[in-house]
Design goal:
Distance between the termini: 34 Å
Number of strands: 10
Number of domains: 1
Strand order of the largest sheet: 1-2-3
Oligomer: single chain
Number of helices: 2
Structural class: alpha+beta
Order of helices and strands: HHEEEEEEEEEE
CATH class: Mainly Beta
Bound molecules: 2-acetamido-2-deoxy-beta-D-glucopyranose
Largest sheet: 3 strands, antiparallel
Shape: elongated
CATH superfamily: Cyanovirin-N
Amino acid sequence: MRLFASLLTSTLALVQVNAALGSFDASCQSITYTKSGSDIVLAAGCAKSNGTYYWTTISLNSCIGNFNGQLNCGSGYASSCSTCNILNGNNLECQQCKDTSENLKRSVSWLPICIRNEEGTLKCH
Ligand SMILES: *[C@@H]1O[C@H](CO)[C@@H](O)[C@H](O)[C@H]1NC(C)=O
């Protein structure tokens, strides 16, 4: 029970830190994902701190990399991952990301960790 309570506390702290850093899922609306060749483009209306929303887009390939078969913050995943889709809102899932031994791995990355809303503009973390 104490472990659960401390896990919950650290999860809440993490959510607060993400919101403070401008995690886009909390401060953007009308989020869409559009395939563009092997890449995917995220578009959304994102709030500035004064409450005005601005239309902004970012290429997932500029913010997500493939690290030995695992998607994470970086760039260039689209050249070594394939069969990629958006799952459950804001997760990028690729069925096949090459690791350093050329094996194909499935990987999922929660995009708000790697992409933020900075004053109405989407940017990579
Ligand atoms: C928010 O700031 C922008 C300029 O950065 C301005 O054009 C806009 O009118 C402001 N909105 C409000 C509600 O103050």
